[in-house]
Amino acid sequence: MARDDLPNPAEGILLAHFVVAADVARSAAFYRDVLGGTVVREAEPAIVKLANSWVIIAVGGGPTEDKPDVTLETPSDPHRTSAFLNIRVADIRAVYAQWCARGAVFLTPPQDRGREIRCYLRDPDGHLIEVGQTV
């Protein structure tokens, strides 16, 4: 695996999205098969290269020395969220059709919101994902 296939910046910073999954292989398959990413690491944590970023997928767990009061878990209520993955696309209608054909289930079709067209879907553990196109 090439160095540029992993989220390891040569300098500065790099942003990756971390999700907690009940089944790491199932979630990695979703990000690969539905969203079109490339699994660059299958072992936990799995890493999926998605466009110009990475999604890191691991099971949850209790506090550790570096996060002593934090427990990682999948969303307990999919109707409430405080953060989500935001994917910007050039042609939302084409992406919507392609991902639906691959098995994505969107909350609604793309909605024109004036400055952007957007829609949302969830990964297998209920993490919310926004797909948007600026107009």
From TrEMBL:
List the Gene Ontology MF annotations in alphabetical order: dioxygenase activity; lyase activity; metal ion binding; methylmalonyl-CoA epimerase activity
- One Pfam family name is Glyoxalase
Write out the GO biological process terms: L-methylmalonyl-CoA metabolic process
Where would I find the VOC domain in this sequence?
Answer: 12-134
| SUPFAM superfamilies with a match to the protein in the record | Glyoxalase/Bleomycin resistance protein/Dihydroxybiphenyl dioxygenase
TM regions (residue ranges): none
| Protein's UniProt keywords contain Metal-binding | yes
- Sorted UniProt keywords: Dioxygenase, Lyase, Metal-binding, Oxidoreductase
The record's listing under PROSITE patterns reads: VOC
This protein's name: Catechol 2,3-dioxygenase-like lactoylglutathione lyase family enzyme
Q: Source species, please?
A: Micromonospora kangleipakensis
